[in-house]
Hints:
Elements: H1 2-64, E1 69-74, E2 85-89, E3 94-99, E4 102-107, E5 118-120, E6 123-130, E7 133-137
Antiparallel strand pairs: 1-6, 2-3, 2-5, 3-4, 6-7
Amino acid sequence: MCKKSKAQISTEFIIILAAILSVFLIIFGIANARIDEFHSTHRLVAAKGIADKLALAVNQVYISGLGSNSSMYLPEKMIDVIDYNLTVFPDSRLVQVEWGERAYGSGLMVSVNGGNDAALSPGLVEIKYNESGVFLVQ
C-alpha cells in the first residue's frame, strides 16, 4: 500500500510539472513573437527616419529656391547592425530604404538628378538646387 501511494504521488507530481512546463512554454512562445514584432517595428522606424530625413532635406532645398544647398549624413548601418540600401527614384519622386526583404519609401516634391535613379552610399550627401534642377552629390 505504501508503494502504491508513492507511485501515485510521483505520477501526480510529473503531471503537475508537465502542466507547469506547458504553461511556461506557451508564455515564452508568446513573448518571443512579441520580441520579433518589436524588432521589426524598430527597424521600420529606423528606415522611416533615414528616408524621411533625406526627403525633408531635398524638399527644403527645393522650397528654398535656386542656389540653395544642404547636406546630410547617411549612417553606415541602420540601428548599428542592419545593412540597408537607399535609392532615389526621381520619376516616382520617391526615396526608398530597403533592408532584408522589406522597404519603406518617402515622397519628394520634385524630381532629382535629372531623372536618373540614384543609389546612395552611407556618408555625406550634398543636395544642390541650380538651373538644371535638384541634384544629390556624394
